[in-house]
Amino acid sequence: MERSAEDGLPRALPGVSAPRFVGRAAELRRLTDALARPPAAVLVEGEAGIGKSRLVQEALDEPGIAARRPLAAMCPPFREALTLGPVVDAARDARPDVAELALTPLAGVLRPLFPEWTRDLPPAPETLSDAGAARHRLFRALAELLDAMGVGVLVLEDVHWADEATLDFLLFLASRRSRRMSLVLTYRPEDVAPESALMRLTSRPPAGTGYARICLGALDVPQTAELMSSMLDGEHVSEAFASFLQERTDGVPLAIEESVRLLRDRADLVRRDGEWIRRTLADIAVPPTIRDAVAERVARLTPVAQRVLQAASVLAEPVGPAVLATVSGLPNNVVGQAVDAAVRSGLLGQDRVGRVRFRHALAARAVYDMTPAPDRRALHRAAGRSLRAVTPQPVARLTHHYREAGDTGRWRQYAERTADLALASGDHRTAVGLLHELLTESDPPAASVARWAQKMPVLAFNGLVGRGDLTRALRRVLDTEALAPHERAAVRTQLGRMLLHAGEYAAGAAELERALPDLAGEPFQAAWAMNILGSPPSTLMSAGEHRRWLNRAAGAARLPMTPDQRLALAVDRATSLLDMGDEAGWAVAAELPDSAATPEGMMQLARSGLNIGNAAMRWGRYDEARQLLTTALARAEEHRYQRLHDMILVTLAHLDWFTGAWDGLAERAAALAEVDEEPLLQLDALLITALLDGAVGGSGAVPGPAVVTEGGIGTVEERLRQVLDAGLRRGIVDLPLEPAAALARIRLTEGSAAEALELTEGPADVVARKNIWLWATEFAPVRTGALLAVQRPDQARRFVADLAQGLAGKNLPAADAALETCRGMLAQGEGRSVEAAAAFGRAVTAWMRLPRPYEALLTAEHRARCLLTAGERDTALTELAHAQAGFTALGARTDADRVHLALRAAGAPVRQVWRGGRRGYGDQLSPRELEVARLMLTGLTNPAIARALSRSPKTVAAQLNSAMRKYGVTSRTALAVTLTQAGITPSEGHDTGARSDL
Q1: Which residue of 77, 403, 553, 859 has the lowest C-beta tally within 10 Å?
Q2: CA 976/CA 965 separation, integer angstroms
Q3: Mind giving me the DSSP string for 269-323?
Q4: What does the buried/exposed string (b/e) look like for 215-243 if buried means 16 or more CB atoms within 10 Å of the residue's CB?
């Protein structure tokens, strides 16, 4: 009771009702306007309690939007994620008549997610081995289901808690070209991890989509007063009171609401002169956080109501009173009264079907944290018992509850079932996370470890192996005597596969060799392990040893196994033989079929195209390599083998580097270097960017992926060193060869011959020990030059002789061209200029026959210098001029400038290097090109520049391309850097806001 200030008579305290929607009219209009023009993507962001959910609900209640069948889902704050759980639960709760939805056979992949619909869903299709393809197929099926249900607006709340599969599904939905479904996502920006896929949605709006990003801020004093008044029967609130509360709560609506309710519970509200005011500042205390306010309010409720709130905080999802009664351990009639009291308090809310949950996650978390730990564990255990009776069992939630209850046995049981469900749904990443936890927990049963290890999808866990805890856990159980031989073989083989896939070749090969004695009854697994040991990049064993393992594998492959297994072994055999420079590999490749009857077989054929195409590239059979890789790329795209697709793209990019197809290569390689969770692919892409920048004279500052460059921006040398070091660290014995050769060439050009020689020592030792001279192709010429430069001609002669012997009788075009180059360098170093020129001439012809124009031009430059020394000045200058023109046409600006200086030093009449454009301006920008370039420096897009200059976008693009040719660069970024270095400044007086047309 309260006493009036005028008469001292008692007056009833004000009733407190739910607040009205206040202070968000503009934001609501933006949201509804966006949804009125589908498809739209609307992102609603703001801190906890700021009113995101209320804003979205107000929009969904609009008649026009409600008619579009919105489907609302909420991401729970659980560690354990069910594959696409929020969307799946929302679709299930909508209770569609599945039999009437006319779903295609694709929907059969939804069976694991909706087991209760199995009678009405199509049969399950064949399992896909490729994780990316399986996940994409699942996404297509779930999108088809939502479309068939007529969902026009998909709302996902608290996306900062979304599992990775759900975020990827949202990206998939946003990228669909034919979609009509709009997306509304709410999240707390401070809780979004920098690497989250959500960042891609927030930073790059989907093309062709209405896009709105709504950032909710604090309420001001008048809005605070309006919200308070709406809770107090619409009566006036003093400005001083509103200002006081707004300051204490930072204008966060939930904090204001909780404070008003608490002040009412405390009887701290006073009515005077027809308005509600606070008591004096000294007499009132507003809790510093929402959590403190909730804790104080809960303490004022009855013990029974508190128990219900504790149960609801543990469940953390909408539940009926019966579940609350079971979990809380209270009688049904008592629970009903307690629920009513909690709803009246404003802490719980009730939906249309009578389920209750906390109105806000912050309040739920506050109650959860203030519940004593023993009581929490008991409530989680009770929640597990209750949910076990649900059909279908919510295995992810059961995993969560039994983990928190401390029931390790049941946690293992339901975590494995959740992983099985994820695997069946194609969600390999979720499965990996759960299996990783199972395998790395303290002291798991050995038999369980064997079972869990075999379930681990090897193609999906790169990041986990590098942490070491997974490999330690498997090795720990291998060191015990608890495993039967077949279990030990399974665990060790899987460990070897994990290490190999993560690029730890030497360690992986060692585990496989140790597994062989226990694989006697598993012919395919034994043959597979032997093939891996026969793979040249895996260890430092010699080519002869590799062949012995390959022959053993061929014998094991004759034992009973499936056609797909036999095909996989044949692909491995062909790959290994070709890696060694063995012609027999082509015969094995020729016996591979053109098609397969199963998805696994088709994936093996796509893999064969990648592996054999890569081998053809290394051999110097470039036309054949491109044909094989292009065919494999088409297969990968058709069957959605995402990992193979990306690896084929980076191999094609490497082929483009060799063949001089450099137009756009820098951008393609940089994009591939950012592919997540594929360290070997990233390393190859990073190598290409470094090689290309070294040739074209780029800025040397291409961003690299964190997994490779540890988050930095690297110069050409830094990137080459990163690839070299990564290859050495991972035990991939052939990976360091090319970056070592490139670094050595840089050092030799600088005059640091000793350093150049040191860089080639490791590669030379690898080639000699393995007796695989194909691998000397990239470093042999620079090693020969370095040996001669440090005055070791005898060693240079021995090296070239060994190379010639190693290549004798083999048809290895690229290695043969490198050998001729070495012979030319040897003759040049010994002063035999005429013989050197002849050898270099043969090398030029060999390089161009591949074709490999950049290497041919470098060799032609050597030939011209030998001719100059031999006194054939006119021929030498002509060939130098041709080399300069070739470098310029290729875009090798650094080399063109070097040859230009050599011509001038020889006294030849030379013109300034022309890099394209109108000859009237030479290599200078024309006035119109300069005008476009200066506008480009302001950040304008081509269409924006065209509007500013009243030209067509095509003309602007042509003028920028001309500018790039003149400066010897291949991207807008490189052009901008070069222009800035040349002192060209951005144009003034143009509004860069035109970039919004992107």
Answers
A1: 77
A2: 13
A3: EEEETTEEEE--GGG----SSHHHHHHHHHHTS-HHHHHHHHHHHHH-S-B-HHH
A4: ebebbebebbbbbbbbbbeeebbbeebbe
Nearest Cα residue to 15 out of 177, 230, 204, 205: 230
HEC secondary structure over 731-798: CCCCCCHHHHHHHHHHHHHHCCHHHHHHHHHHHHHHHHHHCCHHHHCCCHHHHHHHHHHCCCHHHHHH
Question: Which residue's structure tokens are 């966006």?
Answer: 34
- Give residue 968's identity as a one-letter amino acid code: G
Average pLDDT over residues 759-771: 95
**Got the DSSP string for 595-615?**
--SSHHHHHHHHHHHHHHHHH
Peptide bond into 115 cis (omega under 30): no
Q: What's the chain's average pLDDT?
A: 83
User: What angle, 0 to 180 degrees and rounded to 10, lies between the N-to-C axes of helices 563-579 and 543-556?
Assistant: 170
Highest mean pLDDT of the ranges 344-358, 717-731, 757-771, 984-998: 757-771
Query: What number of residues does the chain have?
Result: 998
The closest alpha carbon to 187, from 74, 59, 92, belongs to: 74
Pull the structure tokens for residue 22: 């206040």
- pLDDT bucket at 671, cuts 50 / 70 / 90: confident
The residue assigned the tokens 């990073």 is: 686
Which of the residue ranges 245-259, 784-798, 905-919, 932-946 has the most confident prediction, judged by mean pLDDT?
A: 784-798
Angle at 610 between CA 605 and CA 612, to 5 degrees: 90
SS3 247: helix
- What are 729-758's pLDDT values in tens digits? 777 889 999 999 999 999 998 889 999 999
Distance CA 428, CA 168 (A): 13
Q: Are strands 275-278 and 210-215 parallel, antiparallel or unpaired?
A: unpaired
> pLDDT band at residue 340, thresholds of 50, 70 and 90?
confident
User: 626 falls in which pLDDT band (50, 70, 90)?
Assistant: very high
Q: pTM of the full predicted structure?
A: 0.60
- Rounded Cα–Cα distance for residues 940 and 991 (Å): 9
Q: Which helix (DSSP H) or strand (DSSP E) does residue 276 occupy?
A: strand 275-278
User: What is the predicted pLDDT for the residue at 990?
Assistant: 44
pLDDT at 40: 87
Query: Residue 34 — left, alpha, or beta (φ > 0 → left; ψ -120 to 50 → alpha)?
Result: alpha
Which tops the pLDDT comparison, 924 or 788?
A: 788
Question: Which of 83, 162, 94, 78 shows the shortest CA–CA distance to 398?
Answer: 78
Query: Structure tokens of 858?
Result: 């470098």
pLDDT tens-digit map of 572-586: 999 999 999 999 999
Q: Reduce the DSSP state of residue 41 to 3 states and report it.
A: strand
* Residue 212 to residue 202: CA distance in whole angstroms: 10
Candidates 654, 659, 615, 652; CA nearest to 634 is: 652
Per DSSP, 926 falls in state: P
Asked whether the CA dihedral 479, 483, 488, 492 is positive or negative, the reply is negative
CA dihedral 818, 822, 823, 828 (to 10 degrees): 140
Please check the confidence at residue 700 and state whether its pLDDT lies above 60: no
Backbone angles phi, psi at 929, to 5 degrees: -65, -40
Q: What is the mean pLDDT of residues 471-481?
A: 81
Tokens of 746: 């840089």
Q: Which residue type sits at 278?
A: R
Cα first-last separation, the chain: 62
